[in-house]
Amino acid sequence: MRIGVPTEIKKQESRVGLTPESAGELVAAGHEVHVQEGAGVGSGFADAAYREAGASILPDADAVFGQSELIVKVKEPQPEECARLTPNHTLFTYLHLAPDPVQARGLIESGATAIAYETVTDEEGRLPLLTPMSQVAGRMSMQVAAWALMKTRRGRGLLLGGVPGVMPARVVIIGGGVSGTNAAEIAVGMRADVTIFDRDTGRLAQLDAQFNGLVKTMYSTRKSLAEAVSEADLVIGAVLIPGASAPKLISRQQLRTMKPGAVLVDIAIDQGGCFETSHPTTHADPIYEVDGILHYCVANMPGAVPRTSTYALTNATLPFVMALAGKGTHGAINADPHLARGLTVADGRITHEAVARDLGMEYALPGWYTPRA
Hints:
Layout lengths: L1 E4 L14 H9 L3 E5 L10 H6 L3 E3 L2 H6 L3 E3 L6 H6 L5 E4 L7 H10 L2 E4 L14 H18 L21 E5 L3 H12 L3 E6 L2 H10 L5 E4 L2 H10 L2 E4 L14 H4 L7 E4 L20 E4 L2 E4 L9 H30 L1 H4 L2 E4 L2 E2 L2 H7 L14
Parallel strand pairs: 1-2, 1-4, 2-3, 4-5, 5-6, 7-8, 7-10, 8-9, 10-11, 11-13
Antiparallel strand pairs: 6-14, 12-13, 14-15
Helix pairs in contact: 6-7
């Protein structure tokens, strides 16, 4: 199969869909890999490294899309990329379509088949292609929060871990999944006072055991969360509903109960955000203020550490890319129900039920798909 890797064009996105090592594995399996000139530079991969791996370097995105069947990216396609897609293309990338009707319409009109990293599953029901970036975002959330809490960034002027004789910052993490757990690991390491909220009592028990009592765990109700938020110096929003928009868990009214200069970090912003006052920001201008509360809502947090993120992502995606290239899109999806759960657009329709529901669009599976029992 002919596989294309275009340069990411979303603002301040430096990751790339394949490392040179991943490209080499595909070439060794008999596939063609076409990489746009400079696509890997932001992650520290020179064009020469791809050439040495057997990939070809093409001058621009038009050439990559024109000579490829399978497009492997990182971020959701921008409008000009949707315009390059045709019914002969399969797109494999993060999509986060639920809060993005413009992108959804672009993909539908292209006729391409689009498979979303974020809803591919594994045997345990986990999300293996979302996990590495959730790990990165969770760990990064504490770095950026510690920075935002400084008075020089308009925060409360707190050191996250305090010092002897001075209380550490109070951290509330909403969601005990991958992002929330990784955020807690760093927060505990920085000696913050950490409470994790979740509605899965089994997960809360696991977290209590995992952290040996170093974090507090709370069952999330509107009352318990509201009380904790009012006392928090930092709130991390890490709630995920696969494929669907994130629930709004902190209202604009609740901001008035918080301490001036407190910080909200919304890891769920790709799915619309879990704070009512959230809207996407960029690494160039990451923080804004609402009612005295700082919001960090960068939609591609892992893009700030592209080398780490690209390796982590491609380690996870390569087996699926190999399957798509080796069996063809239809063959790979029909053979693997976990990959099939990533199928989001095909034959001009939304093929993921939760995405279609949130977009208010028609949901239909393609005729070529045969669900496995």
